[in-house]
Amino acid sequence: MTKPVKEIDLIIIGAGPSGLTAAIYASRANLETLVLEKDVIGGQVRLSYTIENYPGFESIKGNELADKMEQQAVALGAIIDEFDFIESVSLKDDEKIIETGDYIYKPKAVIIATGATPKKLPIPSEKKYLGKGIHYCGVCDGAGYKDEVIAVVGGGNAALEEAMFLAKLAKKVIIIRRYDFFRGEAKVLEAVENTPNIEIMYNWDLVDVAGENFVETAIIKNTQTQEIKEIPLKAVFGYIGTEPKTDLFKEDIGLTDSGYIIGNESMETNVKGVYVAGDVREKEFRQITTAVADGTIAALKAEQYIANKKER
Fold first, then answer.
1. pLDDT of the chain along its 312 residues, tens only?
2. Catalytic residue (choose from 67, 84, 137, 252)
3. Is 300 buried (19+), middle (13-18) or exposed (0-12) by CB count in 10 A?
4. In the chain, N or C terminus with fewer CB closer than 10 Å?
5. Cα–Cα nearest to 212, from 153, 141, 128, 131
């Protein structure tokens, strides 16, 4: 059975902060805008317990900020479809085709804002204990470990912030840090250091976890002395970085060796009329504020591109 073909001004792939910002700007420009999202609307922002570095809000819950962005985009006319999964993508200079389960779309322009997912912990038993003591989202899974001893692995703001959140639930949170420093903000680290039930283990690396059916111990190795020991706990939450969601685009779009999309400061990719925004773009800093900036620029450039095509 042939799928219906729909021509549309702009398709935004991904509904995180960059995608939703692009939808706001595109809708304000009266572009017919469709946002396709197969995961959670709001992206990693929705999974953040508290956000304290977004202008205009001294402190705001991640899901609340995500809701506000979504509501604004929809109120301006953007359509957000989180149920029609993308099956294939073909992005060329002269034609863009995005096939979903229900439709074949032919947009004039495309903004890729698919973001990134947490990197898996590089330990032998990761798959065995995934969801059984190995987790990557404190907001999602932390409540299951109330009054237990748990660990966080990582060295950036995400690890520090999640440790702070988990400390409100757990009896004790152990941060396993393979170096003697953190890459996170000094203010966040100070707050962690002043939290009584958080212990930082500098120069220790997670080697593996063990347990009968669920995680019962973490096996760690000292990166300076090579000493190996086990610590009893119920869960390990990993925050060791992210991996870009770019499998759909690797045939057409230029990627770095790490899989991030190459885009210039105008968010332009190697394909005319295709733009990139947010964490999926190769860049130095990945913050909510940089994501919304990317989304703004991508939408404005897409508007210019579409307007120029109509004039020809």
1. 589 999 999 999 999 999 999 999 999 999 999 999 988 899 888 877 778 889 999 989 889 999 999 999 999 999 999 988 999 999 999 999 999 999 999 999 999 999 988 899 999 999 999 999 999 988 888 989 999 999 999 999 989 999 999 999 999 999 999 999 999 899 999 999 999 999 999 999 999 999 999 999 999 999 999 999 999 999 999 999 889 999 999 999 999 999 999 999 999 999 999 999 999 999 988 889 999 999 999 999 999 999 998 776
2. 137
3. middle
4. N
5. 128
Name the region of 13 (left: φ>0; alpha: ψ -120 to 50; beta: rest): beta
Phi and psi dihedrals of 301, rounded to 5?
Answer: -70, -40
- The backbone torsions φ and ψ at residue 252, rounded to the nearest 5 degrees and listed phi first, read -120, -30
Q: Which of 93, 140, 180, 247 is catalytic?
A: 140
Quick one: angle between helices 17-28 and 288-311, nearest 10? 40
Single-letter code of the amino acid located at 304? Q
140 catalytic per annotation: yes
Q: Pull the structure tokens for residue 128.
A: 């065995």
SS3 6: strand
Rounded Cα–Cα distance for residues 97 and 26 (Å): 19
- By DSSP bridging, strand 217-222 and strand 204-210 are antiparallel
C-alpha span between 278 and 291 (Å, rounded): 4
Q: What is the pTM of this model?
A: 0.81
**Strand pairing category for 33-36 and 104-112:** unpaired
Decide: residue 42, CB within 10 A, 0-12 exposed, 13-18 middle, 19+ buried.
buried
Residue located via tokens 């509904």: 15
Structure tokens of 90? 């073909």
Token couple for 273: 């009329």
User: Catalytic residue among 67, 84, 141, 252, which?
Assistant: 141
